[in-house]
Write a structure and sequence with these properties.
- The structure holds 2 protein chains of 2 kinds.
- By secondary structure, chain A is mainly alpha-helical.
- Chain A has one domain (about 1-185).
- Chain A has helices spanning about 1-5, 10-30, 35-50, 55-60, 65-85, 100-140, 150-170, 175-185; one strand at about 95.
- The N and C termini of chain A lie far apart (about 40 Å).
- The model of chain A has no long low-confidence stretch (mean pLDDT about 85).
- Chain B contains 2 helices and 14 strands; from the N terminus they run αββββββββββββββα.
- In chain B, strands 1, 2, 5, 6, 7, 9, 10 and 13 form an 8-stranded antiparallel sheet that branches. Chain B has a 5-stranded antiparallel sheet with strand order 3-4-8-12-11, with no helix packed on it.
- Chain B has helices spanning about 1-20, 200-225; strands at about 55-60, 65, 65-70, 75-80, 90-100, 110, 115-120, 130-135, 145-150, 155-160, 160-165, 170-175, 175-185, 195.
- Chain B starts with a helix and ends with a helix.
- Chain B is of the alpha+beta class.
- In chain B, about 20% of the residues lie in helices and about 30% in strands.
- The model of chain B has no long low-confidence stretch (mean pLDDT about 85).
- The chains are: A mainly alpha, B alpha+beta.
- Chains A and B meet through helix 5, strand 1, helix 6, helix 7 and helix 8 of A and helix 1, strand 14 and helix 2 of B.
């Protein structure tokens, strides 16, 4: 069964895409229930991380070569993601300390699922352009239930930036570090 | 070179898209909208005035419809069950929500939201309480109680309250009047600890840039020497 799925890259990409969408939408709906926010974030983030099961770390962009540069790149990505909010006059949201751990779990899970497993599956099915465009579209759709409509443009642009980084640097460590920093800071 | 150019294009596209909607990057953990304060705290920065709300509820066959009144900025929502009002022959019942222009600070209570006045053209049936939901800011400590008074000068009564969806608190009421959320000032503020955001954010970004530049320069020099 697993071999049959692996032999059909398009089918596998479809399965991974449906899986991440289902997890993200379920997480968003569950998080809206009083008292279930924390559980939804942790369970959802963990479930997203499971999407990487069966992929070699290198295919996910999780190699260890030039690790210091990858971390540094992640910090640069974090600065870019936060810059518009940092220079904007007015209040920036604060992350409640109780949600910090959940934010880290979700950030890592989302990157592993979208720029890791989904990107790799789409790249196998149709090359880098499909991987960048497809992971960005699904990333945006995945946030449709948790974000008001006006935010989706910024969500899409962030997804595109992280996917382009994944392609240009063949790296997932940077997007993970950048995403974690941004989620913790905002 | 082509990859670097596309990466730079991605950065520019993100910066433009994120600049068009406050706060920019936002992953759904904090409240998406800044709170509109009557009396903004110093860390609030730019602030919009809070909105009011109005609703006309139809009375059909002597029974008022189920409906919800809310302020235009969604900071207060009050929901009514069918037959929630004692209609006394009326065909419609008007409900108005107005933020108070002042910020009372009664003894022993620390308010963290605006004070809202809720009025209606008919009293509530005591057996069918209205559900009241008040959104609060992330710039203040989380409130633990919804308070009610018939006059802004007090006395203020603590209503049985419970947390709702993130950044909201809920209660039930059988009377109208003035409502606000807060906590007893004698106790430590609940849920006050936060990370990032607010005035810390520019510092976080500045530190990140400094680290990237300071660590990146030696790495770039070393790579150039190796070549």
């Amino acid at each position: 069964m697993i071999a049959a799925v692996r032999a059909r890259p398009a089918f596998r990409a479809g399965l991974v895409g449906c899986g991440v969408l289902l997890i993200e939408w379920s997480r968003a709906l569950l998080a809206q229930q009083p008292g279930l926010t924390m559980a939804a974030l942790v369970l959802g983030g963990t479930a997203l991380g499971v999407m990487a099961f069966g992929w070699p770390p290198e295919r996910l962009g999780l190699g260890t070569s030039r690790f210091g540069l990858r971390i540094l790149g992640g910090m640069a990505l974090g600065a870019v993601l936060l810059l518009p909010a940092a220079v904007r006059p007015g209040a920036a949201p604060l992350l409640p300390a109780g949600l910090a751990l959940a934010a880290v779990v979700v950030s890592v899970g989302e990157e592993v699922a979208f720029r890791g497993a989904l990107y790799a599956a789409l790249e196998d099915a149709g090359g880098a352009p499909l991987a960048i465009a497809g992971s960005t579209v699904l990333w945006t759709l995945a946030h449709a239930l948790s974000h008001p409509l006006p935010f989706l443009g910024a969500v899409a642009a962030a997804g595109l930036l992280l996917a382009v980084w994944r392609w240009a640097c063949k790296d997932l460590v940077g997007p993970i570090v950048g995403h974690v920093i941004a989620d913790l800071a905002l | 070179m082509k990859r670097a150019a596309l990466l730079a294009l991605g950065v520019v596209m993100y910066a433009v898209a994120a600049w068009m909607v406050a706060p920019g990057f936002y992953d759904g953990f904090g409240p998406p909208q800044p709170y509109n304060f009557t009396c903004p705290p110093p860390q609030a920065g730019a602030n919009s005035k809070p909105s009011s709300g109005h609703l006309d509820i139809k009375v059909i066959g002597g029974v008022s419809d189920a409906n919800s009144a809310f302020t235009d900025d969604g900071q207060l929502v009050i929901g009514f069950l069918p037959g929630a009002f004692v209609v006394d022959g009326k065909s419609t019942i008007s409900v108005d929500i107005k933020p108070l222009d002042t910020c009372p600070s009664p003894s022993g209570i620390r308010f963290v939201t605006n004070v809202y006045q809720v009025t209606a053209g008919a009293p509530l049936d005591p057996t069918k309480p209205a559900n009241l939901t008040i959104r609060y800011s992330n710039l203040e400590p989380d409130p633990s109680i919804v308070y009610q008074a018939s006059d802004p000068a007090g006395p203020w009564t603590a209503l049985t309250s419970q947390p709702g969806q993130p950044y909201t608190i809920e209660t039930r009421t059988t009377t109208f009047g003035y409502f606000a959320t807060g906590y007893p000032s004698s106790s430590p503020p609940p849920g006050a600890v936060t990370v990032g955001g607010g005035q810390v954010l520019p510092i976080v970004v500045a530190v990140l840039i400094v680290i990237v530049v300071l660590a990146g320069l030696p790495i770039a020099v070393m790579r150039r020497r190796r070549r």
